[in-house]
């Protein structure tokens, strides 16, 4: 049960959402429409035949509001939360893990103390009360823990769920709903022979993922690593720098996923919930994908792509129409090859010390980023007529104008950098409360930020980074690429969907992007970071302050 102090702490935190000077307002009209309880706890679930798998899991219940505000999952994944724009939501988070945790509402525009910043965690056995109004447009958001240094591990062991917002405009579009609105959470994982999840060697399953042989040959001998390179500590350090990749693909927490569908359109809500895996998704029969939404909700109009690129943390919504397929048809959604770790190791870096090796090796030799693999299958099993066709217009997007930005002539530049085994932004790594002078923005202003992944830090620096900014949705204005990297970028860039609202901008090595951000409603400290969770935890995260 609540201690009074915890309750007050939660209330004060929640009270901050009501505005200045009213920390404890509890007036009737501000009562939440929806109250949920979400507990993070260790659990055991069946994933493979045989032994069940130890995981971390969010379980929840509705304490007030419609029961369908929360749909439990049948895997290790968290429940799906469904709310409407304009609703006030209170979520009692209970931490039943043996380590600190919290919840970040990825993509939602909420006050800084409700955002799940790493400085706001609940100790084991403690609670944190989140309360906010849903100000965002309809869309596929998600939630996951954000304690510094533990985020990757906690997400990997299962803590993640979808947070779906609907609104009137979306409902007017009459998209496929109910059982025809399918969440598809894509994740990669590694398991040992006892079906245990394998992560870094301080992870639950007790060992790192990289076997002996791979490090052989003294490749790095005498280099920056010194002599201790074979130890699991070194393995972990390298994996932390590069990102953890699993070799098994799970969809909605299950391997070998096959969806049974009818001959009609579906709404697919894709979330890449992996720690570091990049997907380049396409149907195996070559038919194009129809994108209807991105991180921050519906596009203005459907967009066609022959494939889509989906980096960790990003969402994409597809209109998937099976009405022209015969019953019995089977389709496979695949991840296509691209210039990922292997290409960077083998091609771009030439035959130097790291040539042909380190990038692929450090990520995952069995299934590096850039490798091809099947993701899920669709089996057309029933004949069914559906009302309604793909709408020509999906939503209205009111764009900001770049020329209204206060720094239109001199965008704020965020260089992704690497120091001694530490990622950084402009040479600085994460500090819990740290905000540099050039990371302070003014409330109620519009700014242009330019992220650069110049990949000029040597082979370790040649990695893709999906940069995520907390607290808002932004617009991607333009991209550019260094000529030497154009070919690698071209292997994924036709799959970018930059035209909608985004909370992440994906940058291949050699790429730059300008984004337009409006800071409104909430002051305070918000993180921005790479959503390769291991990169964030080895420095590629900073705070910005709105004041
Ligand atoms: Cu989904 Cu700070 O991240
Ligand atoms: Cu990164």
What does this structure look like?
With 547 residues, the chain is mostly beta strands. Among the domains are: 165 residues, Immunoglobulin-like (Sandwich); 145 residues, Sandwich (Immunoglobulin-like), CATH 2.60.40. It has eight helices and 31 strands. Strands 12-11-10-14-19-16-17 form a seven-stranded mixed β-sheet, with no helix packed on it. A five-stranded mixed β-sheet has the order 3-4-9-8-6. It is globular, with a radius of gyration of 23 Å. The protein starts with a helix and ends with a strand. The site of CU-O-CU linkage has 10 residues, from strand 6 and strand 30. Copper (II) ion binds next to loops.
Give descriptors for this structure.
single chain, 547 residues, mainly beta, Immunoglobulin-like, 31 strands, 11% helix, globular
- List low-pLDDT spans: 1-28, 204-230, 342-361
According to CATH, what is the topology of the domain at 4-168?
Immunoglobulin-like
What small molecules does this complex bind? Answer: CU-O-CU linkage, copper (II) ion
Q: Please give the radius of gyration in angstroms.
A: 23 Å
CATH architecture of the domain at 4-168: Sandwich
Strand content: 35-45%
In oligomeric terms, what are we looking at?
Answer: single chain
CATH superfamily of the domain at 4-168: Cupredoxins -  blue copper proteins
Secondary-structure-derived class: mainly beta
